[in-house]
Here is the input.
Amino acid sequence: MLYHLLYEYLDINLFKYITFRGFYALITSFLISLVLGPYIISRLKIFQNKEGGYIREYTPNGHEGKKHIPTMGGILIVLAVLISTLLWCRLDNFYVWIVVFAMVSFAVLGGWDDYKKIKTKKGISSKTKFTIQLILASIIALALYMYPDFNSTLYFPFLKNVQIDLGAFYLLFMVFVIVGTSNAVNLTDGLDGLAIGPSLIAIASFAFFTYVAGHHKLATYLHLPYIAGSGELTVFMMAFLGAGLGFLWFNSFPAEVFMGDAGSLSIGAVLGTVAIITKQEIVLAIVGGIFVVETLSVILQVAYYKATGKRLFLMAPIHHHFEKLGMEEPKIVTRVWIISILLAIIALSTLKIR
Here is the structure.
């Protein structure tokens, strides 16, 4: 909105720069989070306590004390990002609206699941939830696939000239990336600040990747695919980063609010969609390595139990395993953040190692 008003109509040159609008999108969404946070948290707390409180199934006994901490706090992130995006992004950009759709649609699905869990303690069925995720991801994948400038090539980090054109199979791959990332972030959300920390690091990393992908000279110099128009996603990702930082203000230990599925599903969907647009799907698996490990721990736990009747971990996802071993919650979270930073450095190094 500000771009169209202050640059296109009033010719204020400063507003054409992605970096300028990106930094102020971050500040705007952060401040919105701080301002709206206390009100949204208070309303969620009243609703949740009225229904008797809620904690996730299959968590350590020590989590009983978190029963009355409100969930569904992802609403705060989504609202802050939406307002900041409408203010600072170019609203004629196709990729911006695709990512907004990914964020909002998965947030609505997650919010519905959170609401049902609070009301009935059960939530929507896994089959229904997964089916809707597939439908939403298919809509995103099809819209991207049909976009004139889009290509179905899969690029590999560390390798300069290795790429595979998946053709129509790229549609299935896109759905897998979006749904997989969405569920992976969801599984990671189990301790105060645990999911939002790695998410912020991944978001910051992809803010940089979107800028490079949308800058012809930088993309060419670094041997990355140039994606015309994707640079505008930098502004969106910076808004997302600011909103996430604002949420962390309230979610840091001891948490005043949890993001719930409304937050985790939407964060994962955005990361997956942006990775597809920038052709950095494999890099996402690196920078989001924590999400990968958390997901694998659940898969391995189930498979091992079915094969042997015994548990591979004391509890899955793996962060609960470390809790069971006696590790303090803040220490687990801090170490996860440290690992995420190192993984982001490795992911960013792929820009030069090609």
